[in-house]
Amino acid sequence: MQRDVHQSVDYFLVCGLGNLGQYCVSVFKEFGVKVNGIEIIENIKWQIPDLPDLFDTLIIGDCRQPKVLEQADIRNCRAILIVTSDESVNIAAAFAARTLNPNIRLVIRSSQENLNDLLQQNLGNFVAFEATQLPAKSFAIAALGTETRGFFTIENRLLRVVRANISTIHPWLVNRQICELNNSHRRVLTHMRAGYPQPKAFYQWELDAKVLHADTVAYIEVTDNQVAHSAQANIISRTKIWRKLAAMTQWRNLLVSSSQWWQERSQTQRVAVFSGLFIASLLLCGTILYKFQYPQISWHDAINVSIVLSIGGYDNLFGHLQIPFPVPWWLHLFSISLTVGGTVFVGILYAILTERVLTSKFQFTKRRPVVPKADHVVLVGIGRVGQRVAKLLQELKQPLVAVNATQLDSEILPDIPLVIGNIKQALNKVNINTARSIVAVTDDEVANLEVALRVYSENPSANLVIRTFDPRFSENIAQLLPFARVMGAYALSAEAFVAAAFGENILSLFRLNDQTTLVAEYKIKTDDTLNNKLLAEVAYGYGVVPIMYQKATGDPVKFMPSDDIRLAVDDKLVILATIEELQKIEHGIIGHKNWLVRIEKSVSNDATFDGAAIISRISGCDMVTARTTMSQLPQTLQYPLYKHQAQRLVNELSKAQVVARVNKIN
């Protein structure tokens, strides 16, 4: 997975040079690797300037054909990205690539989750993403305009990324240091003072820095176990149902339950139930009366007479000029009543069935909900990205209205308000003056910009989220509209696809401080650049944030793990990192340790003993070195550390009554 920086340059192959494929090539070149490309059409519309010059080899052909793949030198490629817009083509090309190169890593674009699992089992070294699902969550979160910047699930636990503005009533504004905010369920990611530029890397703060008014603190926290909670809720729900049924079987509760059930029925249902019970009682009475009046007939014949009378067969029995058998007047009168009752019941039954048929037939005319009046999201553009964003906003219980230039199928997002037609005119119908956010995600970035400018002129307080494609266009919009969130859907996805090509398992991504942060999972191998390193070295040396660790022996998962854990083969680690930081891990480019700890004195022998254990645990040095240092105070620990690591060592030594300070190496 990770290789030494001195090894030869890797080759990668990208099949499908649409928007996503072009962004993937661009990100690949930032890694300094060689990239070959395959595209089926010759006249490619280049979204990224000068991109054709970045290819080492560009082949025009069908990526499913073995000859085309061989022309692109697939046998010498480390990974292949198959990202055409046709999923069947992607899957076919994946099989062809695996046949030609059994060791190549396959990264394909596919939304078929069940099929993807089967392909992973059969093809091996395989990962699949849906390009619209990865960035859609970022668009949805941006639309909310809240402090939440991302959320994802790891090992059935929900993790949330928050960017909090410290107000005068914030609970952290009570003489708290930044380092005190870290605990077993939370890690600080960035800290920014008011008026200063936002940091582009993690750990850009002093551990003893105080939390001040107007500061901005970004952090990640572990919340409740959502999956377990849902399962428990289902069990509780089923238990309640069984208890309710048991209670209903008790005679004392039967009358109350029946009354409650009757009140919950609609008028039509009540009529149907009443008429059904009435005709059933008439049939039962008719059967009994005919059987006892004419003992010579069987029960079957008695039932048959009652049914014939109830479905309008009165003339079959009594329609002759002279009744063929003697019948008492009271039974004759009852037979007439049974026929009349049956006719009424059949009429009611036909009416109910007709209503159901008509309702089912004309269900497509069901009206969508009305446009919200205020505090809603206006979603402009209901393509694949827009539909995914809409579903996420629905899951987050956010009121929204969709705007689309063309008519949609009635089955697409039937539960949200929809305005169809010219977008300029449609904006007049969606209450943009009172909207919370406007999310413009059409396939035309100029139209998205026009929507944003129109909305800003009428509602400057609304959150503006704009989808773009061209990188230069994105930069220009970001400068023109600094208050807007300018995001490229395929640019966001490309970083996840490229990171996966290097062997990392990308679990999710989110936007923080105007850059994409990836959630990457590693399983440590013998030749990894992470193997045998302390988490402190991984965190501060590569500039990443470890958020989950599991020992190879299968021990329980640890969230926000301690810096003192040393990684070993087959351990599992999940980190937060940008694409640049993953590149450093890939090539083993780790930061230098520029800090030393000067230990001045120890107040007692117990403090000396404890201090040696603390030094060995936090710095990673052997116990002999730690004890030798503590026995010759004052002494400088000749074991360079990272700044945060050194500051933490000083803090822990002070708790053990050992005086120490940090010195920077010149």
Structure description:
The protein has 666 residues and is an alpha/beta fold. A 6-stranded parallel sheet has the order 3-2-1-4-5-6, sandwiched between helices. Strands 13-12-11-14-15-16 form a 6-stranded parallel sheet, with helices on both faces. A 5-stranded antiparallel sheet has the order 17-18-21-19-20. Helix 1 packs across helix 16. The N terminus is likely disordered.
Quick summary:
The protein is an alpha/beta fold and 666 residues long. The protein has 21 helices and 24 strands.
Give the helix/strand layout.
Layout: E1 11-15, H1 19-30, E2 34-39, E3 57-60, H2 66-71, E4 79-82, H3 87-100, E5 105-109, H4 113-123, E6 126-129, H5 133-144, E7 148-154, E8 157-165, E9 186-192, E10 216-222, H6 226-249, H7 251-264, H8 267-293, H9 299-310, H10 314-318, H11 329-361, E11 377-380, H12 384-395, E12 400-404, E13 418-420, H13 423-426, E14 437-440, H14 445-458, E15 463-468, H15 471-480, E16 485-488, H16 489-501, E17 505-512, E18 515-523, H17 535-542, E19 545-550, E20 558-559, E21 572-577, H18 579-587, E22 595-602, H19 605-619, H20 623-630, E23 635-641, H21 643-655, E24 658-664
Parallel strand pairs: 1-2, 1-4, 2-3, 4-5, 5-6, 11-12, 11-14, 12-13, 14-15, 15-16
Antiparallel strand pairs: 7-8, 8-10, 9-10, 17-18, 18-21, 19-20, 19-21, 22-23, 22-24
Helix pairs in contact: 1-16, 5-12, 5-16, 8-9, 8-11, 9-11, 19-20, 19-21
Per CATH, the class of the domain at 11-130 reads: Alpha Beta
Outline the biggest β-sheet: 6 strands, parallel
Strand content: 15-25%
The number of E-state strands comes to 24
What order do the strands of the largest sheet run in, or round the barrel if closed?
3-2-1-4-5-6
CATH fold-level assignment of the domain at 11-130: Rossmann fold
Average pLDDT reading:
83
Shape, principal axes of CA atoms: elongated
- Strand-pairing-aware structural class: alpha/beta
What is the CATH H-level superfamily of the domain at 11-130?
A: NAD(P)-binding Rossmann-like Domain
Low-confidence stretches: 1-9, 225-242, 244-249
Alpha-carbon distance between the two ends: 35 Å
The helix fraction, in percent, is 40-55%
Cα-based radius of gyration, to the nearest Å:
36 Å
CATH architecture of the domain at 11-130: 3-Layer(aba) Sandwich
Q: Report the total helices.
A: 21
